[in-house]
Design goal:
The N and C termini lie close together (about 5 Å). The protein is mostly helical. The protein is elongated, with a radius of gyration of 16 Å. It is about 60% helix and about 0% strand.
Length: about 110
């Protein structure tokens, strides 16, 4: 799934951004990187679950992997899976009319 690969590459790039903390703005840069990693973590988790569903994994399987029940997993992520399959490139993000989405990933599997 191309979107999952791109999301993982984003996480790797953000993680490498913390390498130079010797500059005066190092603390600010570290904080910004940590915030970005939180956002990327959410995207990566959603895309992983979407990929699992697209490839035939059940909610029971996904729930078990998350340490949750199937019902909990479906309640948390089912809507995003449905939106993805309907063509939404960022189903984990609330869409605000007139605001352009910052990141998009190809829907191709």
């Amino acid at each position: 799934m191309a979107a999952l690969r791109l999301a993982w590459e984003d996480v790797q790039r953000a993680a490498h951004a913390t390498a130079d903390l010797s500059t005066p703005d190092g603390a600010q840069r570290l904080l910004e990187t940590a915030q970005r990693l939180c956002v990327l973590d959410k995207r990566l988790k959603y895309l992983t679950i979407i990929a699992l569903r697209v490839h035939g994994h059940t909610w029971d399987d996904i729930g078990a992997r998350l340490g949750r029940t199937a019902a909990d997993a479906e309640m948390l992520y089912g809507g995003a899976v449905e939106k993805w399959l309907a063509g939404d490139p960022e189903p984990w993000t609330p869409h605000i009319p007139g605001v352009r989405v910052a990141f998009t990933y190809p829907i191709a599997t």
